[in-house]
Amino acid sequence: VQLQASGGGLVQPGGSLRLSCAASAGIFSMMGWYRQAPGKQREMVAILSSDGGTNYVDSVKGRFSVSGDIAKRTVYLQMSSLNIEDTAIYYCKANTIIGRREYWGQGTQVTVSS
Length: 114
Known about the structure:
By secondary structure, the protein is mainly β. Helices cover 0% and strands 54% of the residues. The strands form two sheets. Strands 2, 4, 5, 6, 9, 10 and 11 form a seven-stranded mixed β-sheet that branches. The protein has a four-stranded antiparallel β-sheet with strand order 1-3-8-7, with no helix packed on it. The termini are far apart. 32% of the residues are buried.
């Protein structure tokens, strides 16, 4: 199973970006996004469950939106009103139903700077 994330880049404060992630195989219970800023631990940003449920870290609520189709192995992260604190490497993650295995994408850099 391979996860391919894309869509990162450089954006000014207040701007928007959309991240995409596609998995090559697998049947997942959830897909989502994590991020790791320099000197900080990796944190959950937003997850999408196979039942359609979503969960967000408090700092992005109202600004980020996770969507996708778990059955088609795709997940997206629409990020708006970006601020400097959102600068990080963003990783796509997927958990399989069978065996509860975790798979990670390679990460995509998001830099918010003026």
